[in-house]
Amino acid sequence: MNQEELQVAAFEIILHSGTARTEIHEAFADMREGRFDEAEAKLDHSNEEILEAHHAQTKLLQDYASGVEIKIEIIMVHAQDHLMTTMTLLEVAKEMLVLHRKVG
C-alpha cells in the first residue's frame, strides 16, 4: 500500500468518525430538550457513519493480514484515535439517552 492510499484511508476514517461525532453532539442537545426520538435517530445515523469508518479500517487490517506492508504515519494514528474516541462517545450517548428518557 502506498502513502497516498494510506492517507486516503486515514481521511476516510476521519471524515466518517467526524460526521458521527457531530451527530452525537446534536443528539445530546436533543436529549437536553426532551426530543428523544430525534436524538435516537441521530445516534442511529452516527452509528452508520462509524460503520463506514470501520469499513476503511477493516480493509487496512485485511491488507495487513494478507502480507501487504503498511507504513503507519501520524495521520493514521490520528484517524484511529478519532474513531475510537467517537465509538466510546456513542456508547456513552446511548446510555445517556436511556437515562434522559427515564427522567424525562
Automatic annotation (TrEMBL):
Phosphohistidine sites (modified residues): 78
UniProt keywords, alphabetically: Magnesium, Metal-binding, Phosphotransferase system, Sugar transport, Transferase, Transport
Catalytic residues in the record: 78 (tele-phosphohistidine intermediate)
Record bears the keyword Magnesium: yes
Record-linked InterPro entries: PTS_IIA_lac/cel (IPR003188), PTS_IIA_lac/cel_sf (IPR036542)
Cofactor note: Binds 1 Mg(2+) ion per trimer.
GO molecular function: metal ion binding; transferase activity
GO BP: any one term: phosphoenolpyruvate-dependent sugar phosphotransferase system
Lineage: superkingdom: Bacteria
Cofactor(s) in the UniProt record: Mg(2+)
Entry annotated with the keyword Disulfide bond: no
Residues reported in the UniProt entry to bind Mg(2+): 81
Record PANTHER family: PTS SYSTEM N,N'-DIACETYLCHITOBIOSE-SPECIFIC EIIA COMPONENT
Protein name per the record: PTS cellobiose transporter subunit IIA
Organism for this UniProt entry: Streptococcus vestibularis
Phylogenetic lineage: Bacteria, Bacillati, Bacillota, Bacilli, Lactobacillales
